[in-house]
Amino acid sequence: MVMKMNFTKVGILALLVGILTPTLVKALAHSDLFSCNGCHTPHHAEALPGVPLWNGLETTVTFTMYSSDSFQGAIDEQPSSDSKLCLGCHDGANPDFSWMNPDFEFGADDLTSSHPISFIYDSALATLDGALKDPSEASTLGGTIFEDLLDPDSKVQCSSCHDVHTSGVGEKLLRGYDYGIQHGPELCRMCHIK
Ligand code: HEC
Ligand code: HEC
Ligand code: HEC
Ligand code: HEC
To answer: Which residue among 65, 69, 83, 115 is best mutated to probe the pocket of ligand 4, counting the most ligand atoms within 8 A of its Cβ?
Structure first.
């Protein structure tokens, strides 16, 4: 209950800040918007692989996962790891965030039209695909693709592309470099050879 109240207060605050200074809000990391307890809790945490000290905020939506004729990954039945965490607020069903911009919400059918998440990206998939880097290759962030972009189970998740901890990391919290107004291909080329 206490945590929910925090969310509501923070939500109203973020909304006001958003109306007054939209560009400032865009540059803020989630840690600055929600503090750490939007996602972590220091005590009585729940287990979610890939998210240490998870606060337990669950999405209430059942999603249809991505599929296509060319996609070769084995996708989880429902979003896993930090994708599950993100969708706790971004599923369009969280009453504390009913004010959220609809473009920022992903409802039951919206993952079918988003880049696939919650599947293992390993050497076998890279070989099968033929146009993916091996996850042991370097990203542009200092470590390997596995270390910098994938969860501990070697899965692609929301956090593969977004960094919720760092302010000003790039537009829309995108990893890799300052994305700027024009969305360049650098993020995508950390994994794809295209
Ligand atoms: C919007 C959700 C969110 C918020 C807010 C958030 N975190 Fe995290 N945190 C994550 C996710 C997701 C992971 C695992 C994936 C990753 O590192 O991106 C993580 C991982 C971590 C880790 C372990 C992994 C690592 O790379 O060190 C630490 C430590 C951590 N967070 C601390 C913090 C602190 C301290 C704050 C507040 C200043 C904070 N987080 C705010 C989502 C969040
Ligand atoms: C505690 C709730 C909460 C969680 C958990 C959360 N978000 Fe958000 N997120 C928000 C809200 C609220 C906004 C602002 C919405 C708006 O402006 O309409 C937002 C905005 C964003 C934006 C747009 C930022 C911009 O600069 O325009 C991105 C990208 C994003 N979130 C990604 C993520 C990812 C990835 C995760 C999981 C690692 C995550 N969020 C987890 C609540 C959350
Ligand atoms: C393959 C990389 C990738 C993955 C994985 C990914 N995103 Fe994004 N996301 C992007 C890019 C690139 C943009 C900017 C799109 C634009 O501005 O046209 C974006 C934009 C957003 C926005 C801002 C809304 C918008 O339409 O611009 C939110 C919120 C967001 N992502 C949340 C998420 C969540 C939640 C997940 C996991 C369910 C996720 N993203 C997974 C790359 C990704
Ligand atoms: C963290 C690594 C990573 C990043 C970053 C990434 N992708 Fe992917 N992407 C993958 C993997 C792995 C697949 C699965 C390939 C397969 O099975 O064919 C994939 C699949 C795809 C597909 C094919 C889906 C299908 O149905 O065949 C497209 C198109 C794509 N990504 C575009 C992008 C774009 C555009 C970006 C940048 C916004 C991006 N990716 C960023 C790893 C990544």
So the answer is: 115
